[in-house]
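I have been asked to look over a protein record a colleague put together. Thanks in advance; the entry in question is below.
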Amino acid sequence: MQEIKTGDDLILTGIILEIFRLRRKLLDKGDELVRPLRLTSTDWQLLGAVALAGQPMTTPMIAETMGLTRQGTQKRLNKMVGEGYFQQRPNPRHERSPLYVLTERGSLAFEKAMALHARWARTLVEDLNARHLDHALEVLKALDHRLDRVTIPGSGAWSRSAEGERDLSWGPRGDARR
């Protein structure tokens, strides 16, 4: 196993570990924030995915947008349809994957959740530098983009060199570095 040696690797590891911790805290605080609306963080994420997309979405689309599993998303959507937050509509492109749209109740719940969030977010960023926040967002987006392009040795997702040989580098797919 190769050890992490460079300063950049150590910084990235610190960022990754902090993201893991922040994810849990954000979900816990989100649950606390939307509890008065009888919602969970997951409910809020599902409502937000469709509301922010501005169009009906399938379960896989919602799950991918919010970084959730399809199974967990489907289970929660079924419950929320029963509670009147979403309505299923036929999907002309895929008979077995219905589209989900917000009902009036769902739209209102999302608006209320976002109003609570706006007050909470203002408090969170009160003493933070806006330039630092912008930079943090840029870095997270860049990492997200790189994660889509970089292969992991041993994952079976090897890229091929021009000669058809396996490229065992850690570079972006198709980048035949040796």
About this structure: The helical segments are 7-34, 41-53, 59-66, 70-82, 104-125, 130-149. Confidence is low (pLDDT under 50) at residues 166-178. The longest strand covers residues 86-89.
